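Hello Y.,

Per our agreement to keep a running log of every chain we model this quarter, I'm adding this entry. I've kept the format consistent with earlier entries: sequence first, then predicted structure.
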Amino acid sequence: MLYIVATPIGNLEDITLRALRVLKEVDLIAAEDTRHTRKLLTHYAIKTPLISYHAHNQKTRGPELIRRLKEGQNVALVSDAGTPGFSDPGTDLVALAWDAGLKVEAVPGPAAGVAALSMSGFPGDATFVGFLPSREGKRREFLSWLANEPRVVIIYVSPRRLLPTLQEIAALMGNRRVLVVRELTKKFEEAWRGPVKEVAAQLAGREIKGECALVLSGPAGAPAQEVDPAAYLLRRAQESRLQGRQLTDLAAGELKISRRLVYQAYLALKAQGRLK
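Predicted structure for the entry above:
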């Protein structure tokens, strides 16, 4: 079994009981940085063997770990902080495991983007984009594209690029509201929230250390995304296996539209033979 184990993003107490048990019980822990992970293991008196797995050795180390998994060993994959594969190494190994017909299991836990979103107070659905392109031209192009995104956006930013990124957001998207958090869950955690120009002014001239999470509000007055009742009915029917009135009542309530519109879509789908 390959376990994808989320580890603390700063405060060592932010780890689940299940994660601790898995780290103790597996045969091997594949870590982005063994020195960093050893601090966590020492803190919890976990003596499981460590092996490195990171972006620079994944092409050779990945097949070795797959061989061990095929031999019946249980392996836990961890990154330096948070969830492997979520802006951290891990996706290649997970894909190899699936392709090899091996079992993969997630042991969820901390994620800086989710923690920052919970602190933002910005309404609406959210999307995660991770780190922006490092080249200025590509970054501005990507931010221009994001200007049309109606959802709340979660971005990871290095401290060196934080102020230029805020200034580019202000230039390309107007004075959106943002939340910037640095050193989440750590001793020197700080947060700034407000219109992007004001936050940029507060940070100008400051030396920012530690990676930052930036949460960008949706555009003011952005229209809610229209949802196709028919597509929604099909998806909910597959997920819940509900039929008839139970299904239409559920869809009308979740979509916050009239039951009549939902029922019309339901009848059309029945006539097409796509719903029972």
